[in-house]
Amino acid sequence: MSNFSLSEHLTRFQTSDKKTFPPVENASKELNTVIDRLAISPGEIDADYEILESLIDLSQSFPHLNTKLQTQLSYLVSSSLGNLAQEINSNLSGNASNEDIISCIPQWKAHLEEYGYLSHVILSFLQDDVSTTASQSTSSSMSRTNGKRQGADSAVDLFKRSCTQIENFLEMINKVLDINLSKIFQTTPEKDLFIGLFTRPLYVLIETEQATKVQSLKFLILRVIATSVKNHGQGSSAQNAIMTNLTYFMHLTNFNAELLKMINDDFDYPQLTEDVLRDISKKEFNSKDTTGPKAISNFLVRLSELIPRIVLRQMTLVVKLLNNSSFTLRCAVVEACGNIIVEISRDRQELEHYKNQIEVLLELLEERFTDSNPYVRTKAIQGILKICDLRTKFNKNRINFVKLSVRSLQDRS
Q1: Most exposed residue of 121, 134, 388, 406, measured as fewest CB within 10 angstroms of its CB?
Q2: Quick one: three-class SS letters along 257-284?
Q3: 26 Rama sector, left if φ>0, alpha if ψ -120 to 50, beta otherwise
Q4: What pLDDT digit, counting tens, does each position of 48-58 carry?
Q5: Closest to 196 in 3D by CA, of 215, 180, 173, 217
Q6: What is the pLDDT of residues 340-380, one digit of tens each?
Q7: d(CA 255, CA 263)
């Protein structure tokens, strides 16, 4: 077993200029030697320290490798990581005795950290390629000259190739996250550092809008983040990332809503959604800030469409946004109320269960007919129109709907 220190290598990599990592001499020969050793077992990674050193050097010089070697290296590291995860999982869930498991834990931990670091390095370079090629293909898409067209085509090819390699990694990372990592990493900081090797590059990757449009890649990213939240206590880091994304990246409003839906529906973990909504209800915006309120508004509306019952639970917090000076936020709250009522009214049993809450939302919609802003008043009218089209007639409220509608005819705006 090697003396590999994850924290030292990670700090060195993150604080270094990645362009300064030198190319490996005779990289093809080095890689073939490593492939032959790891073909025996993924545990061979540190049986000879030169093998680990070669892998680290090859990974850190990833941009200097030709396309073939890059593909071979990323496949070698990702497949070895997956094989290691399967081996560990089968031992933990199989008939191995506690004594055998305890004796293997130091070695498993070392191997996971070594492959985790290599994966982090390669993912970081692949993420850079995706970001760079996405911007290149966008800037070249308007050009019709042959030279620039060829440049755009090569950028598209690199984008697709990088996305495919990232997908291969994510499939193997999901196998790693299926392991009960608390049995291997004795302290929370150690486990968080390890899981961050995989999640941090993903949070940077999704900042590139084109990456989130690749459906197969997006699904795997969502699955990795969701699993890390549910099974490995990464709710706080995911919550911080979501709030940051909503502040700076408009294209991630739908992505974040879909992430929370997956965590709620597939992983039965509504706590993260509730925590995010609690943060949003406390958020204050600069009067000159238009991007922030718009992103939050789009997110709330989308969330009310995807998981309306969870939003309803936190509606007492969300309605605080009606006191905000931003009419965009008030519009979002009003539209969310309408979406929740419409969705829950589809099921009579649910409607009876949430009867009191629905009454409150209906009153809230009625109140917004007198909002100071015409856009908010319009949203309230649209919400009531949707409700009137439902099979559930809300007879008690209809007379008031009519009175409000007649009064709104005098609304010149």
Answers
A1: 406
A2: HHHHHHHHHCCCCCHHHHHHHHHHHHCC
A3: left
A4: 889 999 999 99
A5: 173
A6: 999 999 888 988 999 999 999 999 999 999 888 999 999 99
A7: 12
CA atoms within 13 A on the CB side of 68: 4
Residues 6+ away with beta carbon under 8 Å from 380 = 334, 365, 366, 368, 369, 371
- Residue found by looking up tokens 């890059």 in the block: 70
Contacts of 10 (CB under 8 A, 6+ apart): 117, 120, 193, 197
Say how far apart CA 51 and CA 31 lie, in whole Å: 9
Query: Are 122 and 197 in contact, with CB atoms under 8 Å apart?
Result: no
Instruction: Look at the block and give the residue holding tokens 């007649």.
Output: 406
Say if CB 296 and CB 277 are below 8 A apart.
no
Helices marked H in 141-187 — which ranges? 146-177
Q: Which residues, including other chains, have CB under 8 Å from residue 99's CB and lie 6 or more apart?
A: none
Whole-angstrom distance between the N-terminal and C-terminal Cα of the chain?
75
Residues in the chain: 413
Tell me the C-alpha distance between 333 and 320, whole Å.
9
Task: Report, as an integer, the average pLDDT of 199-209.
Answer: 96
Unique residue bearing structure tokens 């834990």:
105
Six token digits for residue 374: 């015409």
3-state secondary structure of 217: helix
| AA letter at 273 | T
What is the chain's percent helix, strand, coil content, to nearest 5? Answer: 80, 0, 20
Our CA angle for 163, 167, 171, nearest 5°, is 175
Report the C-alpha gap between 176 and 78 in whole angstroms: 11
Question: Which ranges of 61-213 would DSSP assign to H, the alpha helix?
Answer: 67-93, 98-140, 146-177, 188-205, 209-212
Residue 263's φ and ψ, nearest 5 degrees, are: -65, -35
Token pair, residue 316, equals 């007492």
Residue type (1 letter), 28: S
Angle in degrees, 0-180, between the axes of helices 327-344 and 355-367, rounded to the nearest 10: 140
DSSP SS3 for 4: coil
This prediction's pTM? 0.91
pLDDT tens readout for residues 95-107: 778 888 899 999 9
